[in-house]
Amino acid sequence: MWDAEVDVAIAGAGGCGLVAALTVAERGLQVAVFEKTDFILGNTAASAGMIPAAGTRFQREIGIQETPEEMADDILKKNHQESNPELTLALSKVSGPLVEWMNDNLDMQFSLVTEFKYPGQRNLRMHAPPTRSGLELMKKLKKAANDKDNIYLMLKSQVEKLILGDKGEVIGIDVQTTDGIQRIKAKKVILATNGFGGNTSMVKKFIPEISDALYFGYEANTGEGIEMALEIGAGISNMTAYQGHAAVNEATGLLVTWGTIMSGGFMVNQDGERFGNEAQGYSEFALEVVKQEVQSGYIIIDQYIYQNLLTIEDFKKLDEIDAFKSSDSIEDLAVKLGINVKGLKQTCNAFQENEQGSPDQFGRTDFPKQLKGKLFGIKVSPALFHTQGGLNVNEHAQVVNVQGNVIENLYAGGGTAVGVSGRHAYGYMSGNGLLAALGFGRIAGDHAVHMIQKKGME
């Protein structure tokens, strides 16, 4: 007894779900997307909208020739070889075609981010829309989905259960709607409900080290996709992995881009002292901020860095509401920030003596410039953005069980699937979250269509 039948059913209408839906729909198949909330948002909307990709024409236009293998190598180095090499390479291979498809077919108007390189990336490879905003990505994805007659987008509809056939294959889903439970028959099911960052008990169970920090992700990310698949025997990996961030301005609810650091800034604590190598990455540095007495830090930059980052939407918003304190004097800036004056002055003087390529006492070697002229500072807090562990999947985004065998007709992507950030916060490289969401969405959609068409020809 089925209430409806589609070719592909997708749980979750974030970036992963919509990319998968568009991929399926452009091949002429019918797809239904079920979103449990009232809105089309998700972690993609909360992101900076920057997608890492290798071998794109945007890179070639400025003389960068990069292979997917080089990109995968960077990711594996950052996570200490802790992610699945085949998955890492598969996402790296799809990244370039994905970005160009989104630009050309979905009017994303991407450009290469050239202001700075993120930690661990050998080349400029971050691609972003004009506003440098994930919300812009989601608006374009939603518009494209609404324009497709063969995409059915259902809000307030939570997928609650996977329905199995006689051989253990997935044949449909139970969906809780405003009209009650609906049973949807589907040839393929894609789980795109993100991770479990919004599920306090799961966070405390798997990643207690960050459980007391602010959760800065989408509140609806509560792990149902993972739990549903576990019920039918799916395997999980790297549940201790996550993306943290060391620089959320709680007063405004806005993210302070790590470009502040990579362009030459530094962070201090309440005593005006630095407490680690900021350039190692914003994810792992979140733990360093957690260890501080008041669990907060203060980023210090100069006028040049400040002006150079105004192209980033969140940074522009911070500028518009005067969130940064500023002064021509480091002592006066310390007073305005409410931190130790003597400590900040000594720290700033010592920091200015560092040279590019030479390690300081924390091992930092990235010092692209000295701070000059007017100085700016802002208070930041550590946060959990999203989890990076999840369901075991193969290079086609097919979910595999605890024995390593494919669960027929079931796919997963984004935070629902295991990502490419290894097992710890240090493994997260900027863009890994969007890469896994949009990349796995594209891979899952492609493979689902291929398998449906192949079966139709048999």
Description:
With 458 residues, the chain is an alpha+beta fold. It is 33% helix and 22% strand. It contains 15 helices and 20 strands. Strands 1, 2, 6, 7, 8, 9, 19 and 20 form an eight-stranded mixed beta sheet that branches. Strands 10, 12, 13, 14, 15, 16 and 17 form a seven-stranded mixed beta sheet that branches. Helix 1 (15-25) packs parallel to helix 15. The longest helix has 26 residues, at 432-457. It is elongated, with a radius of gyration of 22 Å. The chain starts with a strand and ends with a helix.
Q: Which strand-content bin applies to the residues?
A: 15-25%
Helix content: 25-40%
Measured distance between first and last alpha carbons: 27 Å
In DSSP terms, counting alpha (H) and pi (I) runs of 4 or more, how many helices? 15
Mean pLDDT comes to 97
Q: Strand tally, please?
A: 20
Q: What does the overall shape look like?
A: elongated
Structural class: alpha+beta
Write down the Rg.
22 Å
Major β-sheet annotation = 8 strands, mixed
Low-confidence stretches: none
Quick overview:
This protein is of the alpha+beta class and 458 residues long. The chain is built from 15 helices and 20 strands.
Walk me through the topology.
Elements: E1 4-11, H1 15-25, E2 31-34, H2 43-46, E3 51-52, H3 57-60, H4 68-78, H5 85-106, E4 111-112, E5 126-128, H6 134-146, E6 151-154, E7 158-164, E8 170-177, E9 180-191, H7 200-206, E10 214-215, H8 224-231, E11 236-237, E12 242-249, E13 254-255, H9 259-262, E14 266-268, H10 282-290, E15 297-302, H11 303-308, H12 313-320, E16 325-327, H13 330-337, H14 341-352, E17 375-387, E18 390-391, E19 398-400, E20 406-412, H15 432-457
Parallel strand pairs: 1-2, 1-9, 2-6, 9-20, 10-17
Antiparallel strand pairs: 3-5, 4-5, 7-8, 8-9, 11-18, 12-13, 12-17, 14-15, 15-17, 16-17, 19-20
Helix pairs in contact: 1-6, 1-15, 4-5, 5-15, 13-14
